[in-house]
Design brief:
The complex is a heterodimer of chains A (403) and B (152).
Chain A (H helix, E strand, L loop, with lengths): L10 E8 L10 H15 L9 E4 L15 H8 L5 E4 L8 H11 L5 E9 H6 L33 H16 L3 H15 L13 H6 L2 E3 L2 E2 L8 E10 L11 E7 L19 H9 L11 E4 L4 H10 L8 H5 L18 H5 L5 H11 L14 E8 L2 E8 L4
Parallel strand pairs in A: 2-3, 2-4, 9-10
Antiparallel strand pairs in A: 1-7, 1-8, 4-7, 5-6, 8-11, 10-11
Chain B lengths: L23 H5 L7 E5 L5 E2 L14 E5 L3 E10 L10 E8 L6 E5 L13 E9 L2 E8 L12
Antiparallel strand pairs in B: 1-2, 1-3, 4-5, 4-7, 5-6, 7-8
Classes of the chains: A alpha/beta (403), B mainly beta (152).
Chain lengths: 403, 152
C-alpha cells in the first residue's frame, strides 16, 4: 500500500489579523471579530469577495461568559460573505480543529480561501459578573443536577480545568520529581517575552519570588500558572498552497497536523495522567512528516495552564520524557536566543487567553520575521504550534517554505 | 477554622448528579455502606462510568457488583479557589480502585490533613449522603501494612 498523500500540505496560512487585545476593552465580540477578519483578509492580499470559506472554534451556544465568540452565520452576514464551505464546532482535536478543518476543505477543493477566527470577551464577561462561581449566580434559583460526564466531577468541587490539570502537575511531581521552581519558568519565560510585546496583558517583570509567593488556586498550581482572561479576536486566512507565490507577505506552509486521541476521552480516566492526549496528537503529527523535533526553530505551545506547556515540550520531543522540569529551569534553553524559543509573545499566561489562536498567530509572525523586539535572532524555518490539553489537543508544524 | 492541617470534607455546596436508569445504582450504592461498579458477567472486568455494553469484550451483560471499597490515590489537588463561594480548602482526589487499575473515581479525600495526602496513599471508601445521593468519599486506610501494592 502506498503512503497516503498528506493533504494538509496543500494549504498555507496566507494572512493573519488580530484585534486589540486587553482587559475589558468595552467592545462587542462581533466588532472585535470583524476587525481581526478584515485585517487577515487584507494581509493575505485578498478582498472579502475572495473569501469562500469560514470556520471558527467553538461556534455559538457553547459555554458562557464571553467564551464562544460570534457564530459563523453572524460573521458571514456581517461581512456578506458568499461561502462554498463553512464550519464551527467544539468537538475535535482542540481549538485548532477549525484550522485543521479549513486546511482539509482547501485541500479537497471545497474552498480556496477560508477565513478562520477565534474570539473571546472573557475579561469583559468577568467584569459583568458573567463568570460567577457555582452557588453564586445560581443561588436562590436552585442548583441544577447534572448528567453526562460532569456528574463524576462536579459533586466533589472539581469544577475547573485548574483542578483537573493540577492532577497532572501533582502526578508529574510524583513520577518525575517536577518542582514548583521548575514549573515557574513557563510563567517567568512568558513574562520575559511579554515585556517585548506591546499587546501583552501583563508586561511588568516577574521574579521567581513573585511566583512562589502568589496565592494558590489548586495545588500545586498558583495564580501565575493560570492564563489571563482577555478580550480579543484572532483571524487567519487558510488558502490553497498554489496561492503562495501571490501572497504579499510570506506564506506559512502547513507541513503536518496532529489530531489523534487514542486514550479514553475523559479528565479522570485517561490512561497516562502525565500526558493526556498531547501524547497522541504529537505522535500522529510526527507520523505525517519527515521533519524531526530538532528541526523546530520556534515553539508556541499552549499555556492555558503552565503544566500543559511542559507536557507539550516532552511529547513533541523538544526534551526527554519527564525531563521538562530540568529543561526549562533557569530559562536559558527556552529564551528567545535559546535553542528552543518558547511562547515568544508571552503566551496566554502573560499575553492573554486568546485560546490557542494567539499561539498560531505568533508562529506566523515569527516565521515571517515580523516579531520586532521579540523576533528570534535567526528567522525560523519551522514552527511548532500546539493547543489544548487534557483529553482535547491538537498540534501542527508550519514552515516558511514549501515542504 | 480550616487550615492545611484540617481541610474541609468538600465544597460548601454539593452539585448533585441527576439519577437515571444507568447511574442510579452507583449513586445510591452507599445506602448499605458498599461501593459498587458494573461488572461484565463475561470477561469479569469492572466498567466505569456505567455504559450500555462491556467496552472490553462487547459481549457479556453488565451487573452492579460490590467491591472492597479500597483504593490508592493516583493524584490529588488541594483546591483554594472560590469556584463555589464559601468553600474552605478541600482535597480533590483521583482514586484507583484495588480491583482494577483502570477504574478511577474523582472524589474528596477526607479525615486527614492536606499535608498528609500523597500519591500512592492507601484509602478506603466512606459515604456522604446528600438528599437521595450517597457520594463515595475516601479516607486513609487504617491498616496500610497489609498493602504491598501501595504506590503503584
Amino acid at each position: 500500500m502506498s503512503a497516503p498523500e498528506l493533504l494538509e500540505r496543500r494549504s498555507i496560512i496566507s494572512g493573519i489579523g488580530q484585534s486589540p487585545v486587553g482587559r475589558r476593552l468595552g467592545r462587542g465580540e462581533l466588532d472585535l471579530t470583524v476587525e481581526a477578519c478584515l485585517g487577515a483578509i487584507a494581509d493575505a492580499g485578498l478582498t472579502r469577495d475572495d473569501i469562500d470559506g469560514l470556520a471558527t472554534f467553538p461556534g455559538a451556544g457553547v459555554g458562557t461568559g464571553g467564551f464562544a465568540g460570534p457564530s459563523t452565520p453572524e460573521v458571514q452576514d456581517a461581512l456578506r460573505l458568499k461561502l462554498n464551505w463553512h464550519d464551527g464546532g467544539l468537538e475535535g482535536p482542540g481549538q485548532l480543529r477549525a484550522v485543521f478543518a479549513a486546511c482539509l476543505a482547501v485541500a479537497a477543493g471545497l474552498a480556496r480561501h477560508v477565513l478562520v477566527y477565534r474570539t473571546v470577551t472573557e475579561s469583559s464577561a468577568q467584569g459583568q459578573g458573567g463568570r460567577q462561581g457555582i452557588g453564586g449566580a445560581a443561588a436562590g434559583r436552585g442548583i441544577p443536577r447534572f448528567s453526562g460526564t460532569m456528574q463524576w466531577t462536579l459533586p466533589y468541587g472539581a469544577v475547573s480545568a485548574a483542578n483537573w490539570l493540577a492532577w497532572i502537575a501533582q502526578r508529574r511531581m510524583f513520577e518525575y520529581g517536577l518542582t514548583r521552581k521548575q514549573l515557574a519558568w513557563i510563567a517567568l519565560n512568558g513574562r520575559r517575552n511579554a515585556a517585548r510585546n506591546p499587546k501583552a496583558i501583563y508586561r511588568e517583570p516577574m521574579s521567581l519570588d513573585d511566583y512562589m509567593a502568589v496565592r494558590m488556586i489548586s495545588t500545586p498550581l498558583c495564580l501565575y500558572d493560570c492564563d489571563a482572561p482577555c478580550d480579543g479576536s484572532t483571524a487567519v486566512v487558510v488558502s490553497h498552497a498554489d496561492y503562495a507565490p501571490d501572497t504579499p507577505n510570506t506564506a506559512c506552509h502547513v507541513n503536518a497536523i496532529g489530531t489523534a486521541l487514542r486514550g479514553r476521552p475523559s479528565w479522570d480516566q485517561f490512561d497516562d495522567m502525565t500526558t493526556f492526549s498531547a501524547r497522541d496528537a504529537a505522535a500522529g503529527m510526527w507520523a505525517r512528516t519527515e521533519l524531526r523535533p530538532s528541526d523546530i526553530d520556534v515553539a508556541e505551545l499552549y499555556d492555558g495552564f503552565s503544566i500543559l506547556t511542559m507536557v507539550w515540550l516532552e511529547e513533541l520531543g523538544l526534551c526527554g520524557k519527564g525531563e521538562s522540569g530540568p529543561f526549562v529551569e533557569g530559562g536559558q534553553r527556552i529564551a528567545l536566543d535559546g535553542p528552543v524559543p518558547l511562547n515568544t509573545s508571552g503566551g496566554q499566561l502573560s499575553a492573554g487567553r486568546l485560546h490557542g489562536f494567539g499561539m498560531l498567530h505568533e508562529a506566523c509572525v515569527q516565521l515571517r520575521g515580523e516579531g520586532g523586539p521579540r523576533q528570534v535572532p535567526v528567522t525560523p524555518e519551522v514552527a511548532a504550534v500546539a493547543a489544548g490539553g487534557g483529553p482535547i489537543a491538537g498540534c501542527m508544524l508550519l514552515t516558511r517554505g514549501p515542504s | 477554622m480550616t487550615t492545611a492541617d484540617t481541610v474541609a470534607r468538600g465544597p460548601a455546596v454539593r452539585v448533585l448528579p441527576r439519577l437515571e436508569d444507568l447511574n442510579r445504582f452507583f449513586w445510591t450504592s452507599g445506602e448499605d455502606g458498599r461501593l459498587r461498579f458494573l461488572r461484565c458477567t463475561g470477561c469479569r472486568r469492572y466498567v466505569h462510568p456505567p455504559g450500555p455494553v462491556c467496552p472490553y469484550c462487547l459481549d457479556g451483560p453488565l451487573v452492579p457488583k460490590p467491591v472492597s471499597g479500597q483504593g490508592v490515590v493516583h493524584s490529588f489537588t488541594v483546591n483554594h479557589q472560590q469556584w463555589i463561594p464559601g468553600s474552605d480548602p478541600y482535597v480533590i482526589g483521583l482514586v484507583t480502585i484495588d480491583e482494577q487499575d483502570d477504574v478511577r473515581l474523582t472524589t474528596n479525600l477526607v479525615d486527614c490533613a492536606a499535608h498528609d495526602v500523597h500519591v500512592g496513599m492507601a484509602v478506603e471508601v466512606t459515604f456522604e449522603q446528600v438528599e437521595d445521593v450517597w457520594l463515595p468519599l475516601f479516607r486513609p486506610l487504617l491498616r496500610p501494612l497489609s498493602r504491598p501494592e501501595a504506590g503503584r
